[in-house]
Amino acid sequence: MTAIGLSDVTVHYGRTEALSRFSLDVAVGETVALLGPSGSGKSTALKAVAGFLRPTSGTIRLDGRDVTALPPHRRGVGVVVQQYALFPHMKVAENVAFGLAGIPRAQRKERVAEVLAMVGMSAYAARRPRELSGGQQQRVAIARALANRPRVLLLDEPLSALDAALRADMLGELQRLKRELPETAILYVTHDQGEALALADRIAVMKDARLVDEAATAELYHRPPSAFTASFLGAANLIPGSIVDGRVAVGDGAGYVCVRPHAVGVAAPGSGLAATVTGVQWRGATYRVTLALSDVEAEVRADVASLDGLPGVGEPASVVLPATGLTVVPRD
Ligand SMILES: Nc1ncnc2c1ncn2[C@@H]1O[C@H](COP(=O)(O)OP(=O)(O)OP(=O)(O)O)[C@@H](O)[C@H]1O
């Protein structure tokens, strides 16, 4: 069953087309990440679902009901944006209770306690936002969005204001929350591929106001349909060529052979594609070796566990591609 449906939605800001005939469905209980570079229209799509803006054309449905003309407060969705936007003069509990005006007092208290527990903030109910860390404020914002028990949760870059360590913690929290809310559909806007891979069941990649590609998360990562998605969804080597009889024919055809750095091997000359080592970077758990292919203009990155026995920078080497798991994407 479809919880969120956008069909053919176009949004203009003045003469700027920020969203162009965008269609996407999110099923009940499903998490879909909208992933794309800055300005690609992700937030615009989310705002259209939230009701913060009115599309020029197209239809938005929630649980099958056309809500295109409804104001935000009548859509029954929970929204969390980048800057937590808590009311500074209200205590945490009051902030969370804010959207529960129509509910009897006793029940309201219970609901606030329930969602604060859910985000691990029960002990902070009497504090004011300024007495909380950024991560704690964001937890409160999430609790507030959950207070009405929405069937749809819209998260717009909820972790981007946090530092890296806190972001990793909160990502774990969101994964747990998702397990606790198996019926809730989540639309998650991010430009961070790591967040999308960790949280989303499905990813919709956007570019220039349009949907570029959309598929189950692992499918999109392992078999990206386009060079843009391959590169945006993590480091990808794009080697001009094709696959003929299961072997890579470099320089052949109109596509790129796409392979992730962790799947590429490096060896002494003579056992793979001829190349020269152009750089080595230690990354802690692995080394990233960059190589220039000899037969075609392309740089290849390989992540290897050890440099033992491998050619050094400036020396000839071989790039060893895996026998399986290679995909070919069209050149953009
Ligand atoms: N209020 C506005 N008025 C005019 N143009 C806007 C407005 N908001 C966004 N835009 C433009 O619409 C386009 C899409 O913006 P949007 O915020 O949806 O992108 P985004 O993918 O969410 O980007 P980011 O990751 O930077 O938040 C951009 O070209 C942007 O400059």
From TrEMBL:
Enzyme class: translocase
SMART domains membership: AAA (SM00382)
PROSITE patterns for this protein: ABC_TRANSPORTER_1 (PS00211), ABC_TRANSPORTER_2 (PS50893)
Keyword entries, A-Z: ATP-binding, Nucleotide-binding, Transport
Protein name per the record: ABC-type quaternary amine transporter
Source organism of the structure: Actinorhabdospora filicis
Keyword Nucleotidyltransferase: no
A Gene Ontology cellular-component term: ATP-binding cassette (ABC) transporter complex
A GO molecular function held by the record: ATP binding
Signal sequence residues: none
Keyword set includes Transport: yes
Ranges for domain ABC transporter: 4-233
EC numbers for this chain: 7.6.2.9
Pfam family membership, one: TOBE_2
